[in-house]
Amino acid sequence: MELSRRTFHALAGTAALGFALTGSGSPTSAHPARTAPTGPPPPVPSADGRPHEIGFDSYSLLVDGRRLVLWSGEMHPFRLPSPSLWRDVLEKMRAHGYNAVSVYVAWNHHSPAPGRYDFTGVRDLDLFLRTAAEAGLYVILRPGPYINAEVDAGGFPGWLTATEGRARTSDPTYLKYVDEWLTAVNAIVAKRLFTRGTGTVLLYQIENEYDAHVDEPSGRAYMSYLYEKVRADGIDVPLFHNDKGRNGHWTPGSFSTGGEKGRWLYGFDGYPEPDRAPSDWGLFGTGGAKGGATASPRTPGFVPEFGGGRFDPWGGAAFDGKGYAEARRTRDAAYERRFHLTNLANGITLHNVYMTFGGTSWGWLPAPAVYTSYDYGAAFDEARNATPKLAPMHQTGQLLRFVPDLAKLHRAKSVRATDERIKVYHLTNPDTGAHFYVLRNDSGEAVSVTLPDAGINVPVMVPARDAKLIAADLRLGKRTLVHATVQPMLSLTAGRQDIAVFAGRRGDLAQVVLECPDEPTPMRLDAEPAWSWNLNKLNITAPLGAGGLSRVRVEGDGVDTPMLVLFADDATSLRLWPYETPSGPLLVYGPALLRSATLRGSTVHLTGDTVGATGLEVWGPPGITHVTWNGRAVATRISASGSLLALRPLPGVTRPALPALDGWRRQTGNPESEPDFDDSDWTTADKETTFSTTPVPDGQPVLFADDYGFHYGDVWYRGEWSDENGIESVSLAYSTGTQGLLMAWLDGEPLGTHRMPVPDKERARQGTWTAKAAFALPEELRERFREARDGKRDRHVLSVLVRPMQHDMDGEALDTHKAARGLTAVTFEGGSPEVTWRVQGASTLDPVRGPMNNGGLHGEREGWHLPEYDDGDWKDTELPRAERRQGVTWYRTDFRLDVLPGVDASIGLVLDDDPGRAYRVQIFLNGWNMGQYINDVGPQHTFVLPNGILRTRGANTLALAVLSDGTTPSGPGEARLTLLGAAAGGVPVKPAGSVTPGGSRSRTAAPERR
Hey, is 294 helix, strand or coil? Predict the structure, then answer.
């Protein structure tokens, strides 16, 4: 509830009388003696060419002897197949308070075959690491070899499914392939280590949530091998593993590290449900092996993955069909604040938020558990837009950067709130004497309390299912904060004044008390704040959000440096941007994003983004008199707060108009179902043995697609026989991932379609689904067979199309990624023909888009998805369609975009139709497989088209491969472009390459500036 001006001034006038703040008592400590004092954190990281030392103690990381609280966000370069946009996301993360990025490196993304490794184009790991360093972010590198990550086979390459050797153990065959992979990855990583000054790689993870063989020699030997291999490859930064939960697995000393000590960190993952109270996994916990950070008391608390959202399965069971919008609603800013502040109170100083930008599981990248979008309900959505849940990340990240006291905390004496619904965590810094209180409200109602045990007798409001961090006895510049009822966000010195920012929820009455032994001269620079001085304390109050940013300047209290106190609600805090320059820090207020600030002479050159028209205010080092924004001069004046204030608003973005999708062409695309189709160049399926975990049925050949080198996308089978004409039905056993599908034709006549069920919540994680599809021959076909018994016909062809929907993730290390995909057995009733089987999947590797872009549809093998393909002889058509047939139909259209230079427009494709229509669509944009839509399953209807693949200034080709079962009209229905976000600014975008049908690279357009 917002306060009226009358109510606010009444409270402000009396609030000071209630302040009788005292110290919080001496702390109690369970930590060993300090190894490094509290002080300024290390500078923003870069590839500065100087060697650096990385260590740690029980409190935090130590970088060159300085304490670092790691505030990291997860993103996956392979889920954003436009390298230009990696910079966009990384710059946004850095601006919003993150100081590190955590990245998986997916083996399957880089390796199309044994011994072949590709780190070019969208797979350019070195480019990503360089870009992260340029953005000022540390890197937590996680190359597996197993990564999970809701990607196909948990990141294992498709070819590994058909190899000998038990994965995720010390099996020598498996380790031979692991050695190849790590050698390729580490050759790149070793050049970008922060220890060498050639990059910012700070930490390195081996394996991922490995809990299957913890107490077995093969598991311990496997982890030891990985450790020693990584060290042998020159990786000298601290190593770690992420325990799957709080099990005390893989703590220091639990396996051999070749005699090396003090270079291994224990970490554990956590994905708490929003309807549960946060757990204490550290200082306030029960302790012991299952107590989280206390399992490793000599290393700092480390959460390599903490829930920044959640994935959603096919059918949307996790969020009742509402998709990632519901994930973001249930895991909103309050959720993130409540759980992260609990972790911080428990002494956890290495945080990584999974995910911070989820992105897109394009092509055949997604594991069976997820559909195309991997938005995750993250702080940045799939279209790269900042969301409101960024507020606690932004505020806490800036706090951890600018207030070093939080890097070294002891549990202090217990403090109780006046309402027992509020749980209070009390911590103190032993070096500075600062006190921090985390007030957590797990109830469904907002609660107002005081903390008389701490001498805080003014009300502090904690919203329902939320938390608040308040500080006391904290040094801010040259003054001391006695107490604040809202969270400090940052403290810096810009120019000739100290600046302190406090942030909270809209409608909060912020009260900040500063020590002032001499009477100050406060200046209220906005209408909302009020102040009073009493008992050598200056009390400043302001309602948050009533007028945007509220300012009070304090001077004349015996301190020679003025202080500017700024008050912001969540939305306003997301427009405050600190930035560190060689000449000192500056603070910018107004735009939607600040990307960079460069000082040259008396001018500060700013780059960033705006959405709507906005003001601009800059507090900077002394001598700054001029400002430019994205290369253009900005007229300013000096404000009463000492800032350079723009005389006119910065312009917002001109939202681009999007064309209608029309001019469609159509072509049927399943000639493999016809009996006379030439399959002579297909692979004969005649193997008798397999390394799959799926047994081969007696009397059957191996039909598993992986055994014949077809690992991604659709697979066709054709079985041929003669002289067996009494068949009445055929039974097709097959094995797929979630939402797998099978279609069959006999002698060109459709037998029908079988599909796996839509998973419910209990089966959403199931990685392998098996079924037996029984098809009785239709009467017309039986009549043909009867005629054939009279000698009129004796050759028969059974055509089967299987959509495997990818491999199990093998999360339990049981080799389940080797479970069969495709047909597993074929039996007949009424006859026992001797069948010769041929199989065909994806034909040739796309050297630009990689191994997971294409499957085995006829149109994919012929290049129908590529923009260079000539579809001039296809039939003209219109959408929506209502065709009823079993099989594949392709639709193509071209469209042009003319987004203005300097505009970052995020555009999506929307597909929609009557949900009763059973069909699915593969979406190809300029040859890139951007995902799969299942009309009657969902929940995804909007597909992000990343700039760089999408040509925002030029021609584009959209191809839709529609797979329909013939039971309903198949569509497609409505297909339209939609604007998902737009900003004036952005980063330069280089179009992704393309290939001609012959496999050579085609020319690409010059880089475009949005």
Answer: helix
CATH code assigned to 864-984:
2.60.120.260
pLDDT digits (tens, 9 = 90+) for 370-398: 999 999 999 999 999 999 999 999 999 99
In the three-class reduction of DSSP (H, G, I as helix; E, B as strand; rest coil), residue 830 is classed as coil
User: What is the CA 670 to chain-centroid distance, rounded?
Assistant: 37
- What residue ranges of the chain are covered by domains with CATH 3.20.20.80? 64-386
Which of 150, 207, 209, 382 is catalytic? The answer is 209
Look at residue 35 in the predicted model and tell me its pLDDT.
Answer: 73
Superfamily of 405-595 according to CATH: Beta-galactosidase, domain 2 (2.102.20.10)
Instruction: State yes or no: pLDDT of 663 exceeds 60.
Output: yes
Q: Where in the chain is the domain with CATH 2.102.20.10?
A: 405-595
**Residue with the larger pLDDT of the pair 34 and 40:** 40
Q: Is 96 helix (H, G, I), strand (E, B) or coil?
A: coil
Longest dimension (CA), the chain: 114
Q: Give start and end residues of each alpha helix (H) in 49-139.
A: 83-95, 107-110, 125-134
Residues 305, 382, 528, 617: which is the catalytic one?
Answer: 305
The C-alpha atoms of residue 41 and residue 745 are separated, in whole angstroms, by: 68
Residues 484, 471: Cα–Cα separation, whole Å:
6
Would you place residue 788 in the very low, low, confident or very high pLDDT band (cuts 50, 70, 90)? low
Q: How confident is the model at residue 998 (pLDDT cuts 50, 70, 90)?
A: very low
Cα–Cα distance between 108 and 46 in angstroms, integer?
30
The pLDDT assigned to 723 comes to: 79
Active site annotation includes 273: no
The CATH code belonging to domain 64-386 is: 3.20.20.80
Q: Is 209 a catalytic residue?
A: yes
Which helix (H) or strand (E) is 858 found in, with range? helix 858-861
Fold adopted by 670-840:
Jelly Rolls (2.60.120)
